[in-house]
Known about the structure:
The structure holds two protein chains of two kinds. Chain A is mainly α. Helix content of chain A is 73%, strand content 0%. Chain B is 67% helix and 2% strand. The relative contact order of chain B is 0.19. The longest helix of chain B is centred in the middle third of the chain and has 28 residues, at 273-300. Chains A and B meet through helix 5, helix 6, helix 13 and helix 16 of A and helix 6, helix 13 and helix 18 of B.
Amino acid sequence: MKLRRFLLTVAAPVSAIVFAIVLCSVILEAAGYPAFTAFHSMWTYGNKTSSLISIADRAVPYYLSGLAVAIGFKMNLFNIGVEGQYRLAALVAAAAGAAVTMPAFLEIPFIMLVAMLVGATWAFIPAALKVARGVHEVISTIMLNTIATGVSAYLLATYFQEKAKGKNIDLVPKTKALPKSGQMPALNRLLRAIGIHIPVGSDLYGFLVVAVLIGIGYYLLIWRTAFGYDLRASGVNPFAAVASGVNPKAMVIKVMVISGAIAGLVGMSDMLGFFHRYTTDFPTGIGFTGIGVALLGRNHPVGVAVGAFIFAYLDRSAQILDLNGIPREIVTIMQGVILLSVVVAYEVVRRIGQAQETKAAAEAATRLEGPAPREPVPA
Amino acid sequence: MTAPATPLVSGESGGPRPELIGGTARLPGKSKFVVAAVLILFLLSVARATTNSPDVTSSGTFGAALRLAIPILLAGLGGIYAERCGIVNIGLEGMMIMGTWFGAWAGWQYGPWWGVLAGVLGGAAGGLIHAIATVTFDVNHIVSGVAINILGAGVARFLSSLVFTPDTGGGITQSPGIQGHIGKFSLPFVAGGRILGWRSPDVSGWLERRRWFFLSDLGGMAKGLTGDISLLTILSVALIPLSVWVLWRTRFGLRLRSVGENPSAAESLGVPVYTMKYIGVIISGGLAGLGGAFLVLISSGIYKEGQTNGRGFIGLAAMIFGNWMPSGVAVGAGLFGFADALQLRSNKAVHALLLMVAIGLLLLSVLWALRRKPIRAAVCAVLGSGFLIWFLTSNRVPEQFVGFTPHLVTVLVLALATQRLRPPAADGLPYRKGQVQ
């Protein structure tokens, strides 16, 4: 029975992906592009070592973003504001990191701490508005995303921008670079040690380790602590949770703040491993991708990791499509279709599971009590 | 994700109101409405006169405000149709994006009115997807809506790469220009409209140029709202009374709302619940699509990627602000449109707005103090003084802040106004046929 349930659970995302591939093939063919060539070239390109390293590097921010969304989803709290939280956090953390120089074992945690604090503070605003004024977090977090963009542009231009040297005009506003101690080493040596040949120009960012630790921490927090129990209870049945002594308002604040703190780390992988500063070129949109990743992974740390990998894989492997003259935007559609069909598939699976349980219960009842007595035949 | 999506407001719900049975829309008291409007215009004239920035109440600003309010209004009306039948529609933004793309495509190929039609159909297609997911498959409404937003953006981008190729003068992020124009109209005797070719006097324009306190501001408003307005604007504004009539005066509207209040009871009376929900959500998408088409056909003349810029969400906020009523949505949309217009017109006008917000908050604080609500009064007083100090110690608002004025206004307004709202009772709840309540 347990195996069957597991298979059913896996069947949902797999069928969603198959459906998405079929639908996108139809779209591509209808638009006059060879669908098989498209997916075949994506597959070959995506499985090269350089691609896989790049995919891992992309997956880490997606994963953290997915976890930040997932912890809210666990109690039906929708933090759509990860986008604004991580961007503001990355900017302030970059500025703080550039301002002080400490040994690496202090510098890197310091930068991360600043990022988490900023993310948590920005997430506290919608939480407070919800608790005190009943403003739904979906609306307020979306508005705060736009506000965060404006605020960070202002902060960057007014306080944190590195002045261009001499007469060069800076086309891309950026903060000062982090000191050497604030740059996280790559994991390339580790890969070589296990016998993987690394192509020139590929770097596996060291932040992967932190992401794994956060994933484990997330699991422990949600499934192994009293707080996590209250959180899940609030999601499944808020009334029962309140009856058992959970303070729903405090819960909203705590979960949003934790979610914002995780969101603050989203930009850290790219910043500590590659950019070493904040620029206006910093990757955007990760917060929105995180929503899809969390949905795909059903808010479970392992599932979210798989979801992050799939989205990163699609992103990376789509780059080859341009060379074949196929619009790579098909991948955006594919991500949307996967997302929508996976939630539908989970619902279908849930119904199948429910029907099976009903059937099993009926059978068990029959075994215990014998067949239902027949109606007496009227004379 | 089968747990109920929480309705967009968690304020106290006051139980069913007689409005559903009695068949009368609870419009805001007309006199109260007029008083509020006059007061706001008065505050605006104070801000205009003291800061000497005519853009605060110029006809240009009000005209722009109207143009900018319409997409928000249409998204908000769309939100009403969905939520009145119990489906939360976060996907309005994605449906609006579909409206912009299809509106631009048909407008470029066949002309503007075809663009309007295509925009509506594009948005309605998004609504259909949302209905399939939420009604038939019981997917959490917010989850489905978020997915539709991602999908809408993806579809628009993909289609652009197919259709708006460089040789058409477009590109992946923008379309070629729209062919032709939608006609314009000016009200005779108020804004100098023509009657059978004869040009009537432009009373409000004359008044506006006098720079008299309050009267000129009134003139600017009248001129902006009645002069040179697009026929599509008139059509969109007409949808407000039409929606009131449809939702509160027809059998269809009663059924639609009953599904959003108590689907089990509606079903027991023979209302086809699923069908009503499908219709409501598809209309919702169509209206959002019309809003998108408006952006393309009237506001910009072309499709640009990202031009909806969160207007679907702001529309949703306007709907909440408007207490799920068409007239309330209209007020909300007007407010957000005005904030948007000011930031587009001039920095000085936004700076003047600071003063107005400060005065408004301080007045509110006094009001709360009189009603013996010390905490609210204190919060308003602190916020109001903050804005006042900001206004007095600066000459302009930083450029980067100006762009998010409407978004900030949205948050502030929701924070100050969500307490006495009543969403439809079954809003966001899953419903299976034959379920016991």
